[in-house]
Amino acid sequence: MVDYRHLEHSAKSVLRNNWVDLGKGLGYTQPAQGIYPYQWNWDSAFAAYGFAHYDPTRSLTDLRTLFQGQWQNGFLPHILFWDVPAQPELYYPGPQLWEVQKVTELAPKKVATSGITQPPLQAMALWHIYKEILARQGPAPAKKILAEFYPRLYKLHQFLHQKRDPEGSGLITIFHPWESGFDNSPRWDEALERIIPNNLPKYQRLDIRFVKSAQRPRKKQYDKYIYLALKLKQTGYDSEKSYAEHPFKVKDLTFSSILYLADKRLLYMAQELDQPTSEIKGWLERFEKGVFQTCWHQEDQMFYDFDLISQKHLRTQTASSLVPFSTGLIPSSIFQKTIKLLEKADYCGQGACAYELLPSVAIQSPVFEDSRYWRGPIWLNLNWLLWRGLQAYGYHQRARHLAQEVFRLVSDQGFYEFFSPLTGQGLGAKNFSWTAAVTLDMLYHTLSSG
Ligand code: 2M8
Questions:
Q1: CB 3.0 to 4.6 Å from 328: which of 120, 309, 350, 392, for a disulfide?
Q2: How far is CA 333 from CA 89, 214, 268, 330, 345, in A?
């Protein structure tokens, strides 16, 4: 029997201990101590989902701090290297590799950042915080929050739609597997095959000081990550140039689904603030058509990422194919068929897994690896998106069951970064922020719905 109060208490202490106070009203949630010491883009938004329930001020500080790293063109980098110059290298690749301030005028002066982005969850998180503040403090303070963040969010979304979807397909192009957030996923293997790194500088992996190398990407993949980052730097992080010459260009299904969810929140904000809405409505319509035109594979009856270079779907069986359901816009006939996958031993049905939670890659896929990051393990942010999808389709019983399995898992194992589907063992970093944050979000939801 899970002790909810104990779970709540321990999740909150993970978030509290990972908080970094920068002074002057700024601060952020580290994803985890040691391995991820800086501020990560979508991690801060996930953390906000947890904090919003009991300390919305902190979640606002986290997002406010994140937007200090926004570039002049609206781009929001995936890492902000706060306070780094005086310290030895804590994380590789650090600011010395990206050198954004040296190669582009668009980068902010006050904080060094990376030159790639991540799934834009911020408008979703902000809308969630807004609703909490509205319920506790009333409309005036809540609206003030929207007015503060709206211009920055709008600029970010506009950048993504204009610069990362010049085709107007409704789907966003990523230039680096790390932009997907599902970094090492086999989703990218085929598109990475053509990348042959050359002239790489000598570098030292720092991640494997903290986590066993068997749970981290292989050297062969890491070399490609560094090579692609350096290629982007050569263009001065210019989207047009990268569109023309970069060797990794993929329409990312999950990134685009998250942007769609975020665009919807942006639309609600615009309506609250009496701002023009037609451009946002246009973005929503593009995805509503585009996700079928670009990502739906008729023969497999499945959604996939689309490789712009080979002009092919990337057909590896991963949980990412289920993320579009969190948008609620896929016809329920397709949802009903796809959700049956979860009942198969391929995913977590028929007792195939220690906990009935979605693994990141189908267990029977030839590329499934039980313990290597993003190549098989259970991630709770992914399960949280599925939980939202189940609710959107009225599968409340199933959504409740999923939440219960999450509570059982973290009570037994702790708030790890990811978990083995086969044994449930906690893997990667300990006391991981988004694991704690999405657990809290599900917990508050469960407690408030009786
Ligand atoms: C992982 O990615 C970083 C690179 O950005 C890494 O492995 O060093 C991913 O899981 C990513 O989605 C996440 O945002 C980041 C921090 O938690 O770690």
A1: 392
A2: 51, 40, 28, 8, 22
